[in-house]
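Researcher: I'd like a structural prediction for the single chain below. Treat it as a standalone chain; there are no partners to consider.
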Amino acid sequence: MVKMEVSFQGRGRLLGQEITDTGTYWQTIRPGGILYGEGHVLFMTSAGDIVDWVGGGIGRPIGPGYKASYGVWGSAQTSSEKLARLGQVADVLEYEVEEDGSYRWTMWEWIGGGMSAEEAASAR
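Model: Treating it as a single chain, here is the predicted structure.
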């Protein structure tokens, strides 16, 4: 089995905050070319807030080089008041890697089934 480890660093916005994301993940190739991996990311703001995120994902190659598309899930811990919501929900992401290894992601919160609209609103 082939196992590859990847490290990355980038910038973006998370819950209205400018962040730097620094992380590493490993991935294997499953039968049929399916990519499976797990990772660990630190999100840091310029004010010193830190989010510690762990998760995993399933993806597929979609072009030459590193070009791939993943569905990712995870959870986070933080003591940051500004980013506290990340520690109260599960995260689902689309993670896209380009041929040259550059990447972009979009994250959504998943509060889970069985919550009322009021409970979901208070979790935000």
